[in-house]
Q: What sequence folds into this?
């Protein structure tokens, strides 16, 4: 069942403004242009004046219903793939949704949006740990952010990074332990670089996050 977004949930960044923390009235009729993870779609006339599609679009902090007319520029990918969405935020019954004008698969994510924010909700074991991953990612320059995004671009690699244990019989031997172990290493590196000025903080963070991804994707 598709869900719509409430005024208390995050939507995402638009090409024109940031919508985090804004009220429902402020969001209405605002343009939106960003990446989501595609869930599924089905044909319907509900909420549309003409026959069209209802589309499930996902970000970690938002599950969004997209509505598109048959005449819209829509190219549906495989389930769980990344898509670029362009449209307008509107009210559907008592919730907010996206009137989708254009949707197309994207092969990679640029440095403007964090790959960890595009995890499906069921992939997130501990939201606070993923928040820490996003904060570390945001510290990096654009080239490093793009590298991290490319390493975890494969949905299977991202899913395993977020859910697998850090070990089977030793430390972090629990679901989500692999991510937690990587985040703790990156945070330790940040503190180390603060006191040891010859160390490159960005390289240390990138290595701590990317090393596991390289192995998972091998």
A:
């Amino acid at each position: 069942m598709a869900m719509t977004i409430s005024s208390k949930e995050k939507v995402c960044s638009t090409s024109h403004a940031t919508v985090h923390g804004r009220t429902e009235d402020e969001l209405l009729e605002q343009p939106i242009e960003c990446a989501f993870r595609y869930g599924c779609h089905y044909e319907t006339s509900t909420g549309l004046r003409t026959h069209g599609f209802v589309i499930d679009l996902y970000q970690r902090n938002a599950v969004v219903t997209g509505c598109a007319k048959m005449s819209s520029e829509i190219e549906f990918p495989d389930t769980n793939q990344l898509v670029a969405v362009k449209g307008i935020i509107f009210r559907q019954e008592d919730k907010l949704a996206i009137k989708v004008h254009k949707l197309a698969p994207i092969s990679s994510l640029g440095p403007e949006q964090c790959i960890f924010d595009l995890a499906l909700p069921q992939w997130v074991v501990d939201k606070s740990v993923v928040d820490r991953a996003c904060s570390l990612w945001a510290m990096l320059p654009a080239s490093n952010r793009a590298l991290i995004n490319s390493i975890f671009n494969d949905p299977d690699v991202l899913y395993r990074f977020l859910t697998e244990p850090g070990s089977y019989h030793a430390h972090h031997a629990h679901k989500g332990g692999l991510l937690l172990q990587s985040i703790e290493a990156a945070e330790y590196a940040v503190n180390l670089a603060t006191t040891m000025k010859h160390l490159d903080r960005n390289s240390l963070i990138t290595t701590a996050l990317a090393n596991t991804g390289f192995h998972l994707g091998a």
Observations:
- The chain has a mean pLDDT of 82.
- The chain has two domains: 24-105, 115-217.
- The two ends are 35 Å apart (CA to CA).
- The beta strands are 31-44, 52-59, 62-69, 73-74, 82-92, 95-105.
